[in-house]
Amino acid sequence: MLAIVLAVACAAPALASPPTAYADQSQTEAASAGTHIHILPFAGTDAIVLESNGRFGIVDSGEDSDYPDGSDPRYPLRPGIVKGSGVEDAVVAYLKNLGVNSGNLEFYLGTHPHSDHIGSADEIIREFRPQRVYLAEYQDSFISDEARLWDNQYVYDRAIAAAKETGAILIQNLDPNAPVEPAPNPVEAQSDLTAVGDAPQADVLDAEGVMERFGVDPTDQDDPYNSELLPEEGIAVTRSVDPNLIHEHAPDPSTTGSPFFTLGDMNIEIVNYGDDYKFNPVPDANYFSWGVKVKAGGSTAFLAGDINNYDGDEDRLSGMIGHVDLLKLAHHGLSGSNTPSYLTALSPTYAVQTGNSSNLPEYATKTLDRLGVRYFTAPEASANGYGAVVATFARDGLHLNVMKDAATYHAFNHDPRLVLYYQGLKQAYQGWKKLGGSWYWFANSAAATQNSWIKQGGTWYWLTDSGAMATGWAKAADGKWYYFDGSGAMQTGWAKVGGAWYYLSGSGAMQTGWLKLGG
What pTM value is reported for the model? Predict the structure, then answer.
């Protein structure tokens, strides 16, 4: 299936022109005063930068090029481990272009231990030396499906090692009553490792301060992350019953920080940090992916990591998160995440997918359309020359740089297969378009015509399942074979193809069996 993210292409006999794009377009997104979220334009890997008033934070940094070779028994070379898809050099270059350094990078946050999110964590941490590193505790024993272990332990261990080597404050557990920066334990206090950089100390808020800034009561005993208080009906969840696992509710204070903190003008909240997975194994690390809620200037964004709804996470979170202006779709838009009820509850103005549109299931596409959400993919930003999808928090709301984009054609794995979008919304069009080497016909619709005959200038053309105009042999909806020349024109009469002769009737259908010609 084509993953088409091209701007407007040249046309054959077009009856109208597509919407005109804005002329100005930046190739890179240089640092500037203000508050922004940068979603780097990769497919199938997350790398996101938060920026506010010259301070920076990172939420995942994407895949890297190294992987376990199997020589260390702790890190087997398992099937499915990603090889050769590292983006660490591009991420480092982008961060340097923004002006990120050890003096202004306040934190690195890994949503969960999958290489497409934290594979490059060790490189980024060593290069830019963040003040704090957020990464939930992980062991392969937390995963019940061995086929989904991949190189999780490898990338996690390397990230933790980098954090310790650079003297970052390591936060692996979250508690609303904890300080932003946990106090070191006695052993750590005697270490000669110190936090690097001249970043100011993070705010330390009491319960009243958290309520005032974030609108959440950290002393609320109905905390939805408390595994003892999860709903007993309607959501399939696991609950620990072993009374010896007391650290479930009393984690190591030296690695426990608050899920609430600030970055410049941003108020940040980490969500979905329940720790039942440590005691009741889950099939995949996506089941305990963190999400990051960002508020600034009256606007809200939610970066959903790889959160899914297989055990009801989206159902539980949707009411807590509420409406957002920007949603980074979960798990690169793949099935199992971004359920209709969740999308409806969040009702985002903009949705950005860190994957190709062909990954987005029909239920998500239809829900985004119904809600009137402006939908963009990170790869289309790259195809149109952007260094990132950048959301800017302004007094009059949240703005995306890709709203200046040209028309974009999204290819889906469900009907309609090819759809024209302009500024994130479906846009009707009339005429032919050539994309990816194939011609498509739009009949005053945002969707390319599929499985249909079209007659122009006395010539018949067949539009296939994908909407692409047929050339060569093609089977039409009637189950019969037809032959089309290189221009797509249906042929009739005798045709020599591949050294063999075929007879095509007046309707164009290939004839089989005996045929009487000429009396």
Answer: 0.83
